[in-house]
Amino acid sequence: MLRLVRESPVAARAFPFFCFVLLTSFQGSLGGLSQYWLYALKTGLGAWLVWLVRDRVPEMRWSVSLPAILAGVGVFALWVGLDGFYPSLTSIVGKGAAAAEPSPWNPFRDFGPGTPAAWACIGVRWVGAAIVVPPIEEMFYRSFFYRSVERADFLSMPLTAFAPRGFFITALVFGLVHPREWIPGVLCGMVFQGLVLRRGHLGDAMTAHGITNLLLGLWVVWKGAWQFW
């Protein structure tokens, strides 16, 4: 399997993402506190997989630019500012689905306010969201999925090539996997894809993604807005 991940352009960009999603699906289902230790596990595994494929995905290189910083701050503002002005997808589907939504991720509730265990969980979440999630999701959505919508041989399509169908489908899918924040999720997908189109690599999108997630994580803890987690 690891050889396939190293040798297949598709697996290199998709396998870390699907591993991350698989572990996410088990969070909270293996005991009351499994959401915390599984998050730590998937963060460690995700970081290792990103390191494993780093030389197989040449477009995955962190970079910092003013547009990336502004995009990251802007998406964070949208994520928080639009909250409460639109229904979640689960509420649209029906009350039964809404009732099935997992309770917010809140280590202060589960370990006690200000306890070392609670802050350890928060620290892992900050690191995972700001450093590990961006390359995993940008590899999958902005590099692989966007181009594969247009071409089976996705590597033959330059990252700077704008394809309306791939652009909007990718943004929509990115929004739908964030059922509570699906509208800012769609807008976020458009912004991050725009950064990739502008420079032809994932670096700016990864930076913007990391800034958004870090600011959101700080906001969650500062304001007690655990619903975002």
Please describe what this structure looks like:
This protein has one domain. Helix content is about 70%, strand content about 0%. It contains eleven helices and no strands.
Offer a concise description of the structure:
Helix content is 69%, strand content 0%. By secondary structure, it is an all-alpha fold.
Instruction: Work out the helicity level.
Output: 55-70%
Strand composition percent? under 5%
Number of DSSP-assigned strands: 0
Poorly predicted residue ranges: 96-101
Global shape: globular
How many structurally independent domains? 1
Element-by-element helix/strand order: HHHHHHHHHHH
Using the CA coordinates, give the radius of gyration. Answer: 17 Å
Describe the protein's topology.
Elements: H1 2-7, H2 9-26, H3 34-52, H4 66-81, H5 89-93, H6 95-99, H7 107-111, H8 116-148, H9 164-176, H10 182-199, H11 203-223
Helix pairs in contact: 2-3, 2-8, 3-8, 4-10, 4-11, 8-9, 8-11, 9-10, 10-11
